[in-house]
UniProtKB/TrEMBL annotation, chain A:
Cofactor mode of binding and number, as noted: Binds 1 Mg(2+) ion per subunit.
Domain Thiamine pyrophosphate enzyme central intervals: 190-325
Taxonomic source organism: Baekduia soli
Gene for this chain: ilvB
CDD domains, per the entry: TPP_AHAS, TPP_PYR_POX_like
SUPFAM superfamilies tied to this protein: DHS-like NAD/FAD-binding domain, Thiamin diphosphate-binding fold (THDP-binding)
Residue ranges of domain Thiamine pyrophosphate enzyme N-terminal TPP-binding in the record: 1-115
Name under which the protein is recorded: Acetolactate synthase
From TrEMBL, chain B:
Protein purpose: Catalyzes the conversion of 2 pyruvate molecules into acetolactate in the first common step of the biosynthetic pathway of the branched-amino acids such as leucine, isoleucine, and valine.
Ranges of residues in domain ACT: 28-102
Protein name: Acetolactate synthase small subunit
Gene Ontology cellular component annotations, sorted alphabetically: cytosol
Keywords, alphabetical: Amino-acid biosynthesis, Branched-chain amino acid biosynthesis, Transferase
PANTHER family: ACETOLACTATE SYNTHASE SMALL SUBUNIT, ACETOLACTATE SYNTHASE SMALL SUBUNIT 1, CHLOROPLASTIC
Enzyme class, broadest EC rank: transferase
Pathway noted in the entry: Amino-acid biosynthesis; L-valine biosynthesis; L-valine from pyruvate: step 1/4; Amino-acid biosynthesis; L-isoleucine biosynthesis; L-isoleucine from 2-oxobutanoate: step 1/4
C-alpha cells in the first residue's frame, strides 16, 4: 500500500477517531488517503486552531490528540500549539508534510526546517528518512506522546516518501532503549514520605496538572481524606480534587486564595504531586514556603529539585504512588489531634479572607458575577475551556470544578487564542457534554476564524465572551504597576460579536441585563448547536487577590 | 503576563549579579547516544536553552555502530550538574550519561601548534617539544607544526611556553575521557 495508507492504518491501530488539520501541497498524499480511510477529519480554518483543538481533545478525553499541517507555513502555524502542549504536558502527535527529499535544504517552495524550529518545544521528533520506517516511527510517536510525562511529538514526512508503495505490517511493540520512564515509585521513599506526613503538624498537599494526566484524582482524594490534610491545586490541577470539599483551600499562586497561599507560607511540610513549582506559584523563590520541607512526587525526574529542593523525592506515576502512600500512611495510625491547631489557623484565614468581590447595585454585570452565573446555568457540570487573561482567572476562581478533565486552559504558555479551538476539540471528543468557552474580547479575536469550523460541523461549543473592551489583564498590570499609563490595551472598535457569529451561520446572543443573567445564559446555552454569547461586563475590574510578580505570598494584595 | 511586571529600573550591576557565574568546578560528562540524525543539535540546543555553558564537545564512534559517544565538559553554571544530566536524560536518543570524577578519569586532548620559528629559536622549540613528548609533523623553512596530546593543563602550559616564539595558529580537539579501572565508562 502507499505509505500514506499505512499512516492511516497506524492511526487506526492507535485508536485515533478524529484528526484536526489543514491540507496543502506537501501533505496532499495524506489527504488523498483520508478519502477512503474512514477516520474523521475536522477541517479547521487555521493550523493553530487544529493544534489547540487536538490539545482540547487530548486534555478532555485523556487520549492522544492528532493534528496535521502541510509543510512550511502550515507547519510553522503549528509551533504555538506544540509549545503549548509541551508546557502543559499534553499528548499530541503533530504530523507535518515536508518538501520532496531532493529539495530539502534548498529553500524550496514552502520549505521550513520544522524539526529545527520545534526542537526546544517537543518531547521528541522525527523526520522520515525512508518510507519503510513510517509505521514504526508513527507508533513510537504515539508511545512517546502518551507515556511517561505526556507531551507533544512531531513527525515530519517528506511528500515523495509518503507516496511510495510499502508493505504494511502492524507494529506491535515499541523499543526505544533511551526512553524508559520510571513509573513505580521507590518504596523506601514512599515510606519516608508517609512518616514525614504523620509527624508534620502543618502539612499542605499541593497538586498540579500531573494528577490529572496520571488519572490519579480518585487516589489523590483518597490520600487527602485519609487524614485531614489541607489541599490546594494549581490552575492546571483544578478538578483534580473536588472543589466543594471542606479540606479544599482553593487555588494557590498569583491569583489563588489567601488561605491557600498563607497555608503554603506557614506549612512545615508540603507534599507536591504532579506540580512543578512554577513562578506563578512560588512568587519570590527565596521566600517561598520558608518553613517547609518538601515531598515531591513527579513522573519527570528533571522536575525534582529544579526550582525548589526536594527533601523526599519520589519519581513515578502519581496514581501508583498515591495508592501506595495511602496504605503506608494508614498503617502509621497518626495522632488524630495534631492537625487541630493547623485547621483552626486555616479556618481563621478562610473566615477573614473569603474569595469575593463587591457587586454594587448599578446596572453593570461584574465579570465575577458572570462566571458565577455560568456556573449556575450549567449546573457546574460543563467542560469549561478558557482563554488567557482576567476571565481565565475569574473562571478558575468562581467555577468550582469537582471532577478532572472539565477545566481546559493554557496554564504554562498562557496562549491567548487557545480556548475556542480547545473547546472544539473537547466537544468533538465529548459529544454528550456541554462545552463552554469562557473567553475575552481580546483572546477570542485570536482564533475566531474557527467559527466557520463549528458552523460547518455543527459543533455545539458555547462561546461566552466576557466583554470588557480591554486587554483586561494587561490593563490591570498597567494600572497597578505602571501608574495607570494605559498603552495599547483599549480594544477600540470591537466587532459586533453577535453579527459576526451570524455571518458565520452561528447563533449570536447579547447579554447586558444583570437581573436575568442566569436564565438568559441558560436559554442561550440551550440553543441547539454552536452559540456566541457576548456578555458586557464592567470595563475596569481587577482580579484579586494577587501576589505581585516577584513578591512573597505574605504580601498578597486585594 | 510577562515579567518583570513592575517598572523599577534594574541596574546593570544587578543584572550581572543575577546572571550565571562560573564556579570553576569542571565536569566531564560522558554521554552515550544513539547514532541518529539531529542528536547533537538536540544536546547543544538543550544546553543553550537552559543556559548551561559548554566548554568542549567531542563526538566519535564507539565499538557499536549504532552508538556514538559524546564527551562534554561544562563549567559549573549556577545550575547544579544533576539538573544538567536529568535534562539530558529526557532526550530520547540519550542512552547513558556519566559525570566522570576527575580523580578516576583519564582525559586527553590533541592539539596542533604552528610556530613561526627559525634559526636558534627553532632548536629551543624542538627541545621544548621533546620535553613535552610532542611530535614534529611538518617543517618548512619558516615554520614548524607540532602535535601534542595530553591533559588540558599540559596543553595549556605548552602553549604558554610556545607563545613567545611566535605562535601562528593552534587547534585543539576538546577532551575525550575514559574512566580508570575495568568498569565501562
Ligand atoms: C498570544 C498572546 N499574546 C499576548 C499575550 C499577553 N496577554 C496576556 S493576558 C492579555 C489580555 C487578554 O485580554 P482578553 O482576552 O480580552 O481578556 P481579559 O483579560 O480582558 O479578560 C494579553 C494581551 C498572551 N497571553 N498571549
Amino acid at each position: 500500500m502507499r505509505a500514506v495508507d499505512a499512516v492511516m492504518e497506524c492511526l487506526k491501530a492507535e485508536g485515533v477517531d478524529v484528526v484536526f488539520g489543514y491540507p496543502g501541497g506537501a501533505n496532499l498524499p495524506t489527504y488523498d488517503a483520508f478519502v477512503d480511510a474512514g477516520i474523521r477529519h475536522v477541517l479547521v480554518r487555521h493550523e493553530a486552531g487544529g493544534g489547540h483543538a487536538a490539545e482540547g481533545y487530548a486534555k478532555s478525553t485523556g487520549k492522544v490528540g492528532v493534528a496535521l499541517g502541510t509543510s512550511g507555513p502550515g507547519a510553522t502555524n503549528l509551533v504555538t500549539p506544540i509549545m503549548d502542549a509541551m508546557m502543559d504536558s499534553v499528548p499530541v502527535v503533530f504530523i507535518t508534510g515536508q518538501v520532496r527529499t531532493e529539495l530539502l535544504g534548498t529553500d524550496g517552495f514552502q520549505e521550513a526546517d520544522i524539526l529545527g524550529i520545534t526542537m526546544p518545544a517537543v518531547k521528541h521528533s522525527w523526520m522520515i528518512q525512508h518510507p519503510l520506517e513510517i509505521p514504526r516511527v508513527l507508533h513510537e510517536a504515539f508511545h512517546v506522546a502518551r507515556t511517561g510525562r505526556p507531551g507533544p511529538v512531531v513527525v515530519d514526512i517528506p511528500t515523495d516518501l509518503s507516496k511510495v508503495d510499502i508493505p504494511y505490517e502492524p507494529v506491535t511493540d515499541v523499543h526505544l532503549p533511551g526512553y524508559q520512564p520510571t513509573t513505580e515509585g521507590n518504596v523506601k521513599q514512599i515510606r519516608q514520605a508517609a512518616k514525614a506526613l504523620a509527624a508534620s503538624r502543618r502539612p499542605v498537599i499541593y497538586a498540579g496538572g500531573g494528577v490529572i494526566s496520571a488519572g490519579a484524582s480518585a487516589e489523590l482524594t483518597e490520600f487527602v481524606t485519609s487524614d485531614r490534610f489541607p489541599i490546594t491545586c494549581t490552575l492546571n490541577g483544578l478538578g483534580g480534587f473536588p472543589a466543594p470539599h471542606p479540606q479544599w483551600l482553593g487555588m494557590l499562586g498569583m491569583h489563588g486564595t489567601r488561605t491557600a497561599n498563607y497555608a503554603m507560607d506557614e506549612a512545615d511540610l508540603i507534599c507536591a504531586v504532579g506540580a512543578r513549582f512554577d513562578d506563578r506559584i512560588t512568587g519570590k523563590l527565596s521566600e517561598f514556603a520558608p518553613r517547609a520541607k518538601f515531598i515531591h512526587i513527579d513522573i519527570d525526574p528533571a522536575e525534582i529539585s529544579k526550582n525548589v529542593p526536594a527533601h523526599i523525592p519520589i519519581v513515578g506515576d502519581a496514581r501508583n504512588i498515591l495508592g501506595k502512600l495511602v496504605n503506608e500512611y494508614r498503617a502509621l495510625d497518626a495522632d488524630a489531634g495534631r492537625l487541630d491547631e493547623w485547621w483552626q489557623r486555616i479556618g481563621a484565614w478562610q473566615e477573614k479572607h473569603p474569595l469575593g468581590f463587591t457587586d454594587s447595585s448599578d446596572e453593570e454585570i461584574k465579570p465575577q458575577r458572570a462566571v458565577q452565573a455560568i456556573y449556575e446555568a450549567t449546573g457546574g457540570s460543563a467542560i469549561v475551556c478558557s482563554d488567557v487573561g482576567q476571565h481565565q482567572m475569574w473562571a478558575a476562581q468562581y467555577y468550582h470544578f469537582d471532577r478532572p478533565r472539565k477545566w481546559l486552559n493554557s496554564g504554562g504558555l498562557g496562549t491567548m487564542g487557545f480556548g475556542f479551538p480547545a473547546a472544539i476539540g473537547a466537544a468533538v471528543g465529548n459529544p454528550d457534554e456541554t462545552v463552554v468557552c469562557i473567553t475575552g474580547d481580546g483572546s477570542f479575536q485570536m482564533n475566531l476564524q474557527e467559527l466557520a469550523t463549528v458552523s460547518e460541523n455543527r459543533i455545539p461549543v458555547k462561546v461566552l465572551i466576557l466583554n470588557n473592551g480591554y486587554l483586561g489583564m494587561v490593563r490591570q498590570w498597567q494600572e497597578l504597576f505602571w501608574d495607570n499609563r494605559y498603552s495599547q490595551v483599549d480594544m477600540g472598535q470591537t466587532p459586533d460579536f453577535v453579527k459576526l457569529a451570524e455571518a458565520y451561520g452561528v447563533a449570536g446572543v447579547r447579554l447586558t441585563r444583570k437581573d436575568s443573567l442566569v436564565e438568559d445564559l441558560r436559554a442561550a446555552i440551550a440553543i441547539d448547536g454552536p452559540v456566541v454569547v457576548d456578555i458586557s461586563v464592567t470595563r475596569e475590574e481587577n482580579v484579586y487577590p494577587m501576589i505581585a510578580p516577584g513578591a512573597a505570598a505574605r504580601e498578597m494584595v486585594g | 503576563m510577562g515579567d518583570p511586571g513592575t517598572k523599577e529600573l534594574l541596574s546593570l550591576e544587578e543584572l550581572e549579579a543575577s546572571g550565571q557565574m562560573r564556579t570553576g568546578r569542571k565536569h566531564v560528562l560522558s554521554i552515550l547516544v544513539e547514532n541518529k540524525p539531529g542528536v547533537l543539535t538536540r544536546i547543544a540546543g538543550l544546553f543553550a536553552r537552559r543556559g548551561f555553558n559548554i566548554d568542549t564537545l567531542t563526538v566519535g564512534p564507539t565499538d557499536d555502530e549504532h552508538v556514538s559517544r559524546v564527551t562534554l565538559t561544562v563549567d559549573g553554571a549556577l545550575h547544579p550538574i544533576d539538573q544538567v544530566t536529568k535534562q539530558l536524560h529526557k532526550l530520547i536518543n540519550v542512552l547513558k550519561i556519566r559525570d566522570l570524577e576527575p580523580a578516576d578519569t583519564v582525559t586527553r586532548e590533541l592539539a596542533l601548534f604552528k610556530v613561526a620559528a627559525d634559526g636558534v629559536q627553532r632548536a629551543e622549540v624542538l627541545q621544548l617539544c621533546e620535553i613535552f613528548r610532542g611530535r614534529v609533523v611538518d617543517v618548512t623553512r619558516r615554520s614548524i607544526i607540532l602535535e601534542i596530546t595530553g591533559t588540558t593543563d599540559k596543553i595549556e602550559s605548552f602553549e604558554s611556553l610556545l607563545r613567545p616564539f611566535g605562535l601562528v595558529e593552534m587547534m585543539r580537539t576538546g577532551e575525550i575521557a575514559i574512566s580508570r579501572g575495568r568498569g565501562e565508562t
